[in-house]
Design goal:
mainly alpha; 10 helices
């Protein structure tokens, strides 16, 4: 096994732990090294399957009843289908630099909205959160679908949709997780419908990465339990978004060089 493959496996483990702890961030950590270790299309296919694994483990094995905002989940996943088909076309048409610029711009917007939301007072227990503008769910769905099949980084638009709404941490995490499960299914359908055969993951690599993903998901659970007790959850999620921006800008600079 090459050093790059080992680094990619370690990134999958760390990314799974991060996503388990805050509901977002798997692609931030794992995608760059998977893209470097394989082809872009194969990396997208691998990320789709591993992301679905994390979501199902979170929703089905934590011995609790998930509480997502179903209005958000259904709308975002439904609107993601045209976006996912568009994303396949983008994956085939644009170079790596253009894709990275697209991702970085989206994350910058999400970060700005999240920072603004952090200055609001904490919601009372049981609060359902503010209702977003009518265009917000369709915009998040189309954008997330397009980013998921082009760069595997469809998370920021959904974070953008949720973080300005004063939702409780558990609701945010469950809504993100349920949405990502739906997005993974839609992305797999879009790749199949467009006959993107080179997105099929390598079986041997997948056999090694699936247990690492499960281990990372288990490792992240205790951290979420601590974060959800206070306002630390929003600070960590903001840090993840900031790191995503930094990584995106670094990728742009390196590609441009």
């Amino acid at each position: 096994m090459s050093p790059l493959a080992v680094a990619a496996a370690a990134a999958v483990l760390a990314g799974a732990a991060l996503q388990s702890s805050v509901g977002f961030g798997f692609a931030l950590v794992a995608a760059p090294l998977l893209f470097a270790a394989t082809s872009p299309a194969e990396a997208v296919g691998t990320m789709v399957l591993l992301g679905l694994e994390i979501s199902l483990l979170t929703l089905l094995t934590e011995r609790r009843r998930p509480e997502p905002v179903w209005r958000d989940v259904v709308a975002v996943v439904g609107w993601s289908l045209p976006g996912a088909l568009l994303g396949v076309a983008v994956l085939r048409a644009l170079d790596d630099l253009a894709l990275q610029l697209l991702v970085t711009a989206g994350v910058l917007i999400a970060l700005a909205v999240n920072l603004r939301a952090m200055h609001r007072p904490a919601p009372p227990p049981g609060a359902a959160g503010d209702e977003p503008p009518r265009w917000a769910r369709p915009a998040a769905g189309v954008t997330s679908g397009a980013l998921n099949t082009s760069t595997s980084t469809g998370g920021p638009p959904v974070v953008l949709l949720l973080m300005a709404r004063d939702l409780r941490p558990g609701v945010v995490r469950d809504t993100l997780t349920t949405t990502f499960a739906g997005l993974a299914v839609v992305s797999a359908m879009a790749l199949a419908l467009t006959s993107t055969g080179d997105a099929v993951p390598d079986a041997a690599a997948l056999a090694a990465l699936v247990p690492l993903t499960a281990l990372g998901q288990l490792a992240g659970r205790p951290l979420f339990a601590r974060l959800s007790a206070g306002r630390g959850y929003e600070r960590v999620l903001t840090g993840v978004l900031l790191a995503s921006v930094t990584a995106g800008l670094l990728g742009v600079l390196l590609s441009g060089g």
